[in-house]
Write a structure and sequence with these properties.
Bound molecules: alpha-D-psicofuranose, manganese (II) ion
Number of helices: 15
Number of strands: 11
Radius of gyration: 22 Å
Order of helices and strands: HHEHEHEEHEEHEEHEHEHEHHHHHH
């Protein structure tokens, strides 16, 4: 396997961190033991955690207004894989990459597989893109794609999704994520029911092209770019469509795609209860900005989501395997640093949720003890599991402190020289 950051440097970094890490780990272990929890089991659990990287996330993203490219950005899908390889090497929590077509278009999927394998990476869900026009495309998506009033536009959008399935198949993916920006900007612009009927008709054709062991994940989003009525705006519509399509259709929850204050953990519980929770795009949001770093605004919400996931896992065991992906846009940070810290934040919520004393919680709930129920959750959330996460990384050969180690490696400065920006480079971020 090719290592992108010098392993000697990682070892040196870890050796310098180790004395303090052991002190903190032992202290936390003692505290957890008093609560009847085994730190070693929690560290082993942390090592099972995996979240996929969005290929588009390693480029500097942007807002709707501007993009401020950073130096040394990846200029093609191979360079994106290289950056993802760095994140995986230093965190060991991101073993797969989620590609987006046609941004990551390739006529040689075998080469992609080979390069990814070199960096210890596999491929997660593939994403289609019918929310912008591509060069040379016959029909425009200006007025929608899977829901368009034009049959020719719908056929083009369906064909693109089927191409994505074919590519994904060659890469070893097992699911297609479909997000469409289709909708209306004006009342009366389109018939609300008619648009959803056309969406379902298009999705039936895509569904029919799924291999036997594949899923299609329907991603909802409240608004943007359709500001009046987005066709797949909420989990209810997503659920109804997944249900209408069949067992291989599930719902994907992008945390940033909800109105402020929405109870996302309840959406998670509902979708799981009815067997339709297919996956996540993790990020954070304050107002309508849907792609902030995971856990940067509301880490308690992230914890509460994982608390629901722990509840489902307890009920359903190993059959419950939703896809975990990050989906963020980085306008003011180094994307590699943001993705590493987000992966760690999601892993943190996963481990904190495992600290919840579920028997005590059930007891308090049954006794209608609202205060103690809430305290049981808060007790787990307030526990700083950083030493567990660091120990899990060090034992896996990753970095005790991924961002510090990355900064010390000079990787970005090296890439600034090796990857001079070129005009018309492939889109490496969200613009
Ligand atoms: C849309 O906002 C979204 O969340 C979808 O997942 C897209 O595929 C992704 O962002 C990239 O634009
Ligand atoms: Mn998303």
């Amino acid at each position: 396997m090719t290592t992108l950051i010098d392993t000697g440097l990682v070892a040196e970094h870890n050796a310098a961190a180790e004395a303090h890490l052991w002190n903190d780990y032992d202290a936390l272990g003692g505290m957890l033991a008093r609560r009847g929890q085994d730190i070693e089991q929690l560290t082993a659990l942390a090592q099972t955690f995996a979240v996929a990287l969005p290929s588009w996330g390693v480029g500097t993203g942007g807002t709707r207004f501007a993009r401020f490219p950073g130096g040394g950005e990846p200029r093609n899908v191979f360079e994106k894989l290289e950056d993802c390889g760095v994140i995986q090497q230093l965190t060991r929590a991101t073993p797969t990459v989620s590609l987006h077509f046609p941004w990551d278009a390739t006529d040689d999927p075998a080469a992609l597989r080979e390069v990814a394998g070199r960096f210890g990476l596999g491929f997660d869900t593939v994403n289609s893109n019918t929310f912008q026009d591509q060069q040379g495309q016959a029909q425009t998506y200006k007025y929608g794609s899977l829901t368009a009033s034009s049959a020719a536009v719908r056929a083009q959008a369906v064909a693109h999704n089927i191409d994505c399935i074919e590519l994904g198949r060659a890469l070893g993916s097992k699911a297609l994520t479909v997000w469409v920006g289709d909708g209306a900007n004006f009342p009366g612009q389109h018939n609300l029911r008619g648009a959803l009927e056309r969406y379902l008709e298009s999705m039936r054709d895509i569904y029919a092209a799924l291999p036997a062991d594949w899923n299609v994940l329907i991603e909802h989003k409240l608004f943007e770019p359709a500001f009046y009525a987005t066709t797949i705006a909420d989990w209810g519509t997503s659920y109804a469509c997944a249900n209408a399509l069949g067992p291989k259709a599930k719902c994907l929850v992008d945390l940033g795609h909800h109105a402020p204050n929405t109870n996302i953990e309840m959406i998670v519980a509902r979708l799981a209860q009815f067997g339709k929770l297919g996956g996540f795009h993790f990020n954070d949001s304050k107002y309508g900005d849907d792609d902030l770093d995971s856990g940067s605004i509301n880490p308690f919400q992230l914890f509460l989501i994982f608390n629901e996931l722990a509840d489902v896992a307890e009920r359903e065991g190993k059959d419950f395997q939703p896809s975990y992906m990050l989906d963020q846009s980085h306008n003011v940070t180094d994307p590699i640093e943001s993705l590493m810290s987000s992966a760690v934040e999601v892993q943190r919520a996963f481990v904190q949720a495992a600290l919840v004393d579920r028997a005590a919680l059930l007891h308090h709930q049954q006794n209608n003890d609202a205060l103690q129920s809430a305290q049981t959750l808060k007790h787990a959330f307030r526990t700083d599991v950083s030493p567990i996460l660091a120990m899990a990384r060090v034992r896996a050969g990753a970095a005790a402190d991924p961002v510090a180690c990355y900064r010390a490696s000079g990787y970005r400065a090296g890439k600034q020289e090796a990857r001079p920006a070129k005009a018309g480079a492939s889109s490496s971020g969200i613009v």
